[in-house]
User: What shape does this take?
Amino acid sequence: MTTAFLNGDYVALDEARISPMDRGFLFGDGIYEVIPVHDGKPIGFSLHIDRMKRNLSAVEIDLDWTHDQWRDICDMLVDKNGAGNLAVYLQVSRGADTKRHHAYPKGITPTVFGFASEIAASPKSERTAVTPLKISSAEDERWRRCDIKSTALLGNIIHFQKGQAEGNDETLLFNAAGELTEGSATNVFVVKDGVITTPPLDHQVLPGVTRLMLLDMLRKGGSVPVEERVVTMEEARQADEIWLTSSTKAVAPVVQLDGSPVGSGEAGPVWAIAHRLFTDRKFDY
Assistant: This one.
């Protein structure tokens, strides 16, 4: 993975340079997307760009690029870095100013950066073939606009590192009321008695593209009931199954939470249904 995009040019990744006065560097003042690409084909491309454009508008970064412009960059990064299983990272910061000042500056040009990195192929839907996850839990201490996919991810990183330090793969977060929000880098689904639930979207939860696609597939599939509603941490501890979703993890089963088994301690049968749906239809979006 050697070629990056920076402000209109394709350059060697290790030669890409931004100003130290860039507000993305100084403040984390930027928006990003990660688009999975399997076998050279992006997954949920338009949904990712829709979210990027909403988030750029939410933080008042003025960059009105079209879907086609972003698609050209994505395609070129895939072409230059090998059309296998990749994650294409796209980032827009507010740009470089002449001074460090909290207020949004006027008249500066956004910095646009992109690169590609290798990811694993989509796992098989067989319950015995998947590598499941073990996770920790923690009270959510991040800022109150987690619906914005900001590059300022220190809160997420601290939570993720907690799970890593405990020998786990992720950290499941809950608010002061004991209600699930999401993982530090994932959305969460809980299964009990054959019913799938996931927390509703609000400022505590990133509207994940994989989450959106999977909900649509499950509702159209119709074989398993699915609900968007408040889910408590106690429900998670009593769940038959827990899954985490993200662009790079797809739909990943969880078999252990805080050292205790989830359900049977194996990838569950409802996960297998959901994962098969996602695998079969992921290029439809």
